Amino acid sequence: MAGNQARPHPGCLAWGRIIPGLTGAVGRRLTPLVVMILTLSLTGCRTLGLPSLVKQPEATSTSNQFLERSVQGDRVVSKILPVRLRLRPGWQEAPANSLHDRADLQVYHPGQQIYLVVLGESKATVPAGTLEQQASRYLALLESGLTAPVSTPARTGVSQIANFPAVQYELQGQVLGQEVSYLHTTLEVGDHYYQVVIWTAKDKAVANREEMGKIVQGFDSDQ
Hints:
Elements: H1 10-13, E1 65-68, E2 75-78, E3 83-86, E4 92-93, E5 105-109, E6 114-122, H2 131-143, E7 148-149, E8 154-155, E9 160-161, E10 164-175, E11 178-189, E12 192-201, H3 205-216, E13 219-221
């Protein structure tokens, strides 16, 4: 069986190993939806339409988002927090809990194999500090779960999204033998911080870089 062992898809492994800790002092745990078992083979995971090693159970919890259609285009809207994301061509809702079991928003681009989640938390649940400091804390959590870093986090030129202050980094790391490329954005929106995390396989990073940068610009909030 070892000879037929499949490599985990980046859409599956993105949160199980990469952010195993807390988002804040008493914040929402970034708990992996799927536990990967490295024995003779890997268990499957919800691969969003891609072949899976084992049949997956149906999601049992209700999605935290809904799809809103209009002449201006489709948006996914959170049922919990006042945030939404405008979908670009090729993007669609991810099945409930398929990318992260507590995400406020989760979408993916099946054609380009890009994945995105939005997680918000109250400032009251994290240590006091500036947006820059909170972005560094989130980034440190992300890096702490990598099997090995592939590149040093690089700050992008993005400082604002939808009129909200933002700090954005690009980074790459290895997880369970696969190299993954991330675009991580922290936004300060009223009394909340939001993480918008986008990822794709490293070998698709150059081709997907522009699209990853554009989809995050569709984030908006009423806060």
